[in-house]
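Design job #97: recover the sequence.
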């Protein structure tokens, strides 16, 4: 669909499962070579690599901690060494856990912030430095959440990290716009990913979730991947600094449906 993505090079953090795997596969389908990052799920990353290669694409799986400069440097080096450069950087890696804020261990806060927010900063920093040094009009796509906008009690660290990603995206999009570097953000809602599999397997929990979605269904990882491909392509060449919600309308305050309130 997006012929300009052919022969482009992409790094996708958190690419071993869920949204990351779907995005890596979609970018490959459009002709891009992909560095699939994983932290601990080597099998998932290798399976994604094999699937891409089976479709005729090119990919490498690279272990790295995106919360460290060494980790993101390793990913950038893999893109340059294996595929000759970098055009697209997708910050997808993320973690969450449920805990009352007054009982939250500092270690839980730090872990979530380090992966979800610091990881986005470090990945973006590495990509920006490469683009600037090479006078290259690359693009960065961050994966946030509807919870950069919707409060989520007992997930304060997660919501704080995603709110930070939203403003970070806008800020660096403005900072580098005159260099032709585009930075955008995707805010997924209720998506059928492995992290949600147990919750959505419970019919009552699934109904509670779909009741919060005006379209009355949950999304698939491919729905997010389709948006990522568009944001990476020249079809969105005049788009920067936005959060595009892929949420079935979850951010539209569905409790007011039918004129309630």
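Job complete. Output follows.
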């Amino acid at each position: 669909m997006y012929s300009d993505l052919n022969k482009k090079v992409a790094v996708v953090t958190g690419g071993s499962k869920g949204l990351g795997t779907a995005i890596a596969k979609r970018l490959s389908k459009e002709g891009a070579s992909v560095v699939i990052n994983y932290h601990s799920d080597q099998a998932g990353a290798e399976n994604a690599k094999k699937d891409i290669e089976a479709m005729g694409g090119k990919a490498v799986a690279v272990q790295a901690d995106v919360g460290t400069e060494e980790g993101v440097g390793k990913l950038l080096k893999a893109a340059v060494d294996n595929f000759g450069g970098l055009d697209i950087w997708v910050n997808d890696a993320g973690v969450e856990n449920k805990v009352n804020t007054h009982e939250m261990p500092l270690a839980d806060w730090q872990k979530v912030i380090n992966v979800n927010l610091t990881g986005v900063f470090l990945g973006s920093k590495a990509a920006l430095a490469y683009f600037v040094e090479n006078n290259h009009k690359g693009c960065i796509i961050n994966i946030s959440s509807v919870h950069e906008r919707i409060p989520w009690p007992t997930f304060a660290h997660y919501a704080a990290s995603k709110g930070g990603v939203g403003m970070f995206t806008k800020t660096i999009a403005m900072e580098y716009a005159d260099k032709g570097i585009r930075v955008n953000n995707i805010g997924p809602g209720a998506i059928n990913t492995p992290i949600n599999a147990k919750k959505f397997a419970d019919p009552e929990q699934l109904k509670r979730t779909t009741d919060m979605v005006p379209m009355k269904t949950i999304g698939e990882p491919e729905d997010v991947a389709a948006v990522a491909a568009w944001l990476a392509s020249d079809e969105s060449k005049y788009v920067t600094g936005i959060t595009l919600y892929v949420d079935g309308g979850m951010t539209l305050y569905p409790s007011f449906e039918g004129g309630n309130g």
